[in-house]
Amino acid sequence: MTSAVVKAVGVVKDVSPLYYRILSKFPQNLTFCFAYGSAVKPQIGNQKKHNMIDLIYCVENSYRWHGANIEMNPSHYSALRYLGKGFVARFQENWGAKVYFNTLVEMREENVTIKYGVVSQKDLIADLLDWNDLYLAGRLHKPVEIIKQTNSSQLQNALQSNLRSAVHTALLILPETFSEYDFYFAISNLSYAGDFRMTFGENKNKVRNIVQPQLLNFRELYRPILQQFHVYVDFATGDTQCHQDINPETKLHHLMQLPMVPQQRIVKFWNHGGLQQDMEDVLRAVAYDIDCAVILRQILKDIVWQSSVRQSLKGVLTAGFLKSIRYSAKKIAKMF
């Protein structure tokens, strides 16, 4: 893995041995793994030592991985395991945001509780490149703890592409002048604005609480990406204001670089009830429209809303009713 890619996916040099001990309890054929959330990265108002650790396990073959894991850790699964590994794998890949979560898993020997999501590599790459669901792609817009690096050049490139897409999108949403904090807030908010869980069970200041204590981590994550944007933005760190080119032709460039799904939805929105225009014509018209940022924000909100609702409903089945109630209660308790 090149140093540029290592930086782009947010690798932390000294990974806690705890994570490796946790992974040792699972089938080892993972292609990529990262940890995220308040137990992993600092968040204002969430300094509790016993926060649940959130993990994502990326696998090449969901059918084989779940088969092995059901044998090793049957208690992690709800009653869905009785329908077989084939059903579990299909349920993972065909419903919601294509992630299968097992939650409130107690690792007693480590004195921690974890939640882990399983995703196939092909589905992770698709979300990173196209923003089908903006679900795991959104989590990877923010600093995470990479536990197992990927050897797949396709996934490495998709991870970088996802960060570049976040920058193009943030610049379209932000005004001509903004602060470094505004920039990282805009990026972090891409996958929270529209998330129906933000209407209940989540702190309304969650994005601010993520960004403020992690400015240095965000800076490290996006530094190599922003070097590719020097023509479009004069990016400054600290208290100095950043300035970007807001010429419509520059906006058109950013729109042309967006992932496929937001582009398609912009075209659908623009053509609704009117003259049917192709993608380039629509994106050019949007670039010159005073409501360009408003349109883009609404498109992204719709993507996030749909995927968050579907994935949350899916979680009731993968966790089981009792665990779902306990998990929701823990989320609400963290607000107080």
Automatic annotation (TrEMBL):
- Localisation: Mitochondrion inner membrane
Q: Which GO terms describe its biological process?
A: cardiolipin biosynthetic process; CDP-diacylglycerol biosynthetic process
Q: What is this protein called?
A: Phosphatidate cytidylyltransferase, mitochondrial
Q: What is its EC number?
A: 2.7.7.41
Q: Which controlled-vocabulary keywords does the entry list? A: Lipid biosynthesis, Lipid metabolism, Magnesium, Membrane, Mitochondrion, Mitochondrion inner membrane, Nucleotidyltransferase, Phospholipid biosynthesis, Phospholipid metabolism, Transferase
Q: Would you identify the family this protein belongs to, as annotated?
A: Belongs to the TAM41 family.
What cofactors does the UniProt entry give for this protein? Mg(2+)
Q: In which pathway does it act?
A: Phospholipid metabolism; CDP-diacylglycerol biosynthesis; CDP-diacylglycerol from sn-glycerol 3-phosphate: step 3/3; Lipid metabolism
Instruction: Spell out the reaction equation it catalyses.
Output: a 1,2-diacyl-sn-glycero-3-phosphate + CTP + H(+) = a CDP-1,2-diacyl-sn-glycerol + diphosphate
- Gene Ontology terms, MF aspect: phosphatidate cytidylyltransferase activity
What is the scientific name of the source organism?
Parnassius mnemosyne (clouded apollo)
What is any one of the record's Gene Ontology cellular component terms?
A: mitochondrial inner membrane
Lipid bilayer topology: Peripheral membrane protein
